[in-house]
Amino acid sequence: MLLKRLVSTIVLVALTATAIIIKPLFIAVILFFTFCGLYEFFGMVERKGVPTYKYFGTIIGLIIPLSIAYKFELTKGWELLFIVLALIAIFILQISKKETTQAVFSISTTLFGVTYISWLFSFLVKIRLLPHGAALVGALIFITKISDIGAYLIGSPFGKHPLLPRISPKKSIEGLAGAVFFGILAALASNSFLPQRSIFSVVHLVFMGFSLSLLSQLGDLSESLIKRDCLSKDSSKLIPGIGGVLDLIDSLLFTGPVFYFYIYRIILA
Asked: Among positive and negative, which fits the CA dihedral 36, 40, 41, 43?
């Protein structure tokens, strides 16, 4: 298992680094991960017995990052308007069905999947389109994943005090502290590859490392909550030694949007 995890990590690091540099490949990877994440999510909830509009939800979920990548906007915040239109369309689909059982679950779960996975993950595309976007995306992923590694390295051997055992028994307070410590170190180290005019002050870097590491752990716990409710250990077995795509991107679903607004509203304002 350790060897599989190591090989998968090396492949993923190489793929991510290449994709960040080559924008069309980056968009393709985002679309692939979005598709897989939605497929895994809808699969988990349907195995729990909740019907969803998975095909419609997946199509909508892919259109959101595509519209951002190609700057297709009818209005500012077009993706939010699109989600509203998708909700209306789902209601129409539900009304046209003969059965009305579990209508609330079907509608809300489908929309939640699109919002939770597609919309939140699409913020990586928004970051990539910012000035020096490649470096910024690299910094975001670097800080988030190093924070995850810190939680594992400290939590596994030294974790004595459970964080939220009813959601994730292996999570510990010591692991959370490790995530924050490694996250801050990663943020400080990321300053070395950020472009000269985008260099953050030490205060910005420490705050960014601290906040992103907490959000990373919250993202991991949130997906664990969904998996526990659906009685699933992993979202899938797609990535050897790691699990599913949703297991891979869960921490980025929360760090991406916050990082984007921090850069866009605070740093670049």
From this structure: positive
What are the residue boundaries of the structural domains of the chain, listed by start? Answer: 2-267
Could you say which DSSP state residue 52 is in? -
The answer to whether the CB of 132 falls within 8 A of the CB of 21 is no
Closest CA to 32 of 200, 238, 265: 238
129 closest CA partner among 65, 34, 46, 180: 65
Cβ(48)–Cβ(229) under 8 Å?
yes
Give the DSSP H or E segment for 171: strand 168-172
Cα–Cα distance between 253 and 114 in angstroms, integer? 12
Q: How far apart are CA 159 and CA 161, in angstroms?
A: 6
Q: Dihedral angle at the C-alpha atoms of 178, 179, 184, 187, nearest 10 degrees?
A: 140
First to last CA, the chain: 46
pLDDT digits (tens, 9 = 90+) for 104-129: 888 999 999 999 999 999 999 999 99
Cα–chain center distance at 120: 7
Phi, psi (rounded to 5 degrees) for 240 = -55, 130
Residue 181 host element (H or E): helix 173-190
pTM (two decimals): 0.92
Beta carbons of 104 and 112 less than 8 angstroms apart: no
Question: What are the CA-CA distances from residue 1 to residues 103, 196, 211, 223, 233 (Å)?
Answer: 41, 41, 31, 22, 15
7: tokens are 């090989």
What digits encode the pLDDT tens for the residues 71-89? Answer: 876 666 677 787 788 889 9
**Dihedral pair phi/psi, residue 230, rounded to 5°:** -90, 5
Round to whole Å and give the CA distance between 208 and 184: 7
Write out the two tokens for 155: 């939590």
